[in-house]
Write a structure and sequence with these properties.
single chain, 441 residues, mainly alpha, Fumarate Reductase Iron-sulfur Protein, Chain B, domain 2, 18 helices, 0% strand, binds iron/sulfur cluster
């Protein structure tokens, strides 16, 4: 019986980490459904981007209030979780404050964690007010109804409760140290939790131990639960922001990729020395390449990683000129739809032993409408605004490519323009012979 808590703790840890590992496997499988893309270039630039954007949060602070608050929550949450290491070891070994022999260093660390915990609580409350009382525009757009709204609030509640449990645990521990309870070593400094100690005045030693242990257990179980919640939440970005900024676009802003097959055709047409008959004979049996994207499997894996990394912050949508002028397009929704469809495809695979069985649905049409796609001005503002290097524009362009090149389903204005270019060498409906008529007018 003496080791029962340690055994329960070990089981909880194995179950928590096991489920998390299972979700990571699913995540990786889903991302790998995307087409391959070569991102092995410019490694030093990529590392720099990751250090600056993900670690340094440089793009977050462009909007100072939200940015600074986010840095506090991020740093606080990561650093306080260093204490989780001590909690895990204590839980497994049956010790209490295992690192306390570090003396003044330990006291400094616990003191810093407490100050950060308080700052996290303040930041979380401000975030909650911005979302629910002030109702900042970008948090109340149509795509933020239902689960995205609940998810955003849920994360704040969980962080709030975890920090509160941490401070409660320390406050009761501090009180137990003061009354000299057995097992509670004199260690740590408590610059914040000392102020909530009076709440526990008058409690007997056994009651204090009960509150301290309850807070300790709920804190660590809450962290394990939160770890598993990540997969279902936009909060996945705390992990994926790092690979995403590393693999993010480093080409000049707004530069599109060319389709290899089209480039080849154009070269053959434009190069007077090219001999079309000398072109290598294609493998007749090979399936012709699909132009653009109509579903998530047609996108590349970096675009799918982008979808999972989206924080749903809406900075892209708030900068989008199409959205600002009342069009249906929201680049954030493009990313959310891509993720939702990818999740749907993943679930179908789970239900069919890893095989995807067509379900009669696709990203284009069932999630993202033609109207949204054609509202994009390709201005690139969404890509510039994104704090984690997501590129919604590339998905829009791929889907437009599909519409134009596979379905000939471009809007009439665009079709007219393309016919004019083809026939007249210019977007206007005038004969090339008439080009210089204006000279005589
Ligand atoms: S590129 Fe398109 S989606 Fe992005 S901000 Fe510009 S108009 Fe909006
Ligand atoms: S794409 Fe980027 S800017 Fe837009 S909502 Fe997602 S994380 Fe925010």
């Amino acid at each position: 019986m003496e080791y029962l808590p340690n055994i329960i703790f070990a089981v909880a840890l194995i179950v928590g980490i096991g489920f998390f590992a299972r979700n990571v496997k699913k995540l990786s499988r889903n991302i790998k459904l995307g087409k391959d893309v070569d991102v092995s270039d410019n490694k030093s630039q990529r590392w720099k981007n990751m250090a600056k954007i993900a670690l340094g949060q440089t793009k977050m602070v462009v909007r100072p209030i939200a940015g600074i608050m986010h840095v506090i929550v991020y740093v606080g949450f990561i650093i306080i979780n260093i204490e989780v290491l001590e909690i895990i070891l204590d839980g497994l070994l049956g010790t209490h404050r295992l690192f306390s022999p570090l003396g003044p260093v330990y006291n400094f660390l616990i003191g810093s964690f407490e100050i950060l915990a308080l700052l996290v609580i303040v930041a979380v409350v401000v975030f909650w007010i911005r979302r629910n009382i002030i109702r900042i525009q970008r948090f109340i757009k149509p795509e933020m109804k239902g689960w995205p709204k609940t998810d955003g609030n849920m994360i704040l509640y969980i962080e709030f409760v975890l920090m509160l449990l941490f401070l409660t645990m320390n406050a009761t521990d501090f009180q137990l140290q003061r009354i000299g309870a057995e097992h509670y070593v004199q260690a740590g400094s408590f610059p914040v939790s000392q102020f909530i100690v009076p709440l526990f005045d008058g409690l007997s030693e056994s009651s204090l131990i009960f509150v301290e242990r309850t807070a300790w257990w709920l804190h660590i179980l809450g962290i394990l639960a939160f770890l598993n919640y990540l997969y279902y939440s936009k909060h996945l970005h705390i992990l994926l922001a790092f690979p995403n900024t590393y693999y993010g676009k480093i080409k000049p802003q707004g530069q599109f990729n060319n389709l290899e097959s089209v480039t080849k055709e154009v070269k053959l047409m434009m190069d007077p020395d090219a001999d079309p008959y000398a072109a290598p004979v294609e493998d007749d049996a090979a399936e012709p390449e699909k132009f653009g994207a109509s579903d998530v499997m047609d996108l590349n894996w970096v675009q799918l990683l982008n979808a999972y990394t989206c924080t749903e912050c809406g900075r892209c949508t708030s900068e989008c000129p199409a959205n600002q002028t009342g069009k249906k397009l929201s680049p954030r929704k493009i990313m959310m739809d891509t993720r939702d469809r990818l999740e749907e495809v993943g679930k179908i695979m789970d239900a069919n032993k890893g095989e995807f069985v067509p379900d009669g649905k696709q990203l284009l049409g069932d999630y993202i409408s033609h109207e949204e796609l054609w509202a994009c001005t390709t201005c690139n503002a969404c890509v510039e605004a994104c704090p984690v290097s997501i590129d919604p524009l590339s998905i829009i362009v791929e889907m437009r490519r599909y519409l134009v090149m596979e379905q000939s389903a471009a809007p009439t204005e665009l079709n007219n323009m393309m016919s004019n270019i083809e026939n007249n060498g210019a977007p206007w409906p005038y004969n090339q012979m008439d080009r210089l008529n204006w000279v005589n007018e």
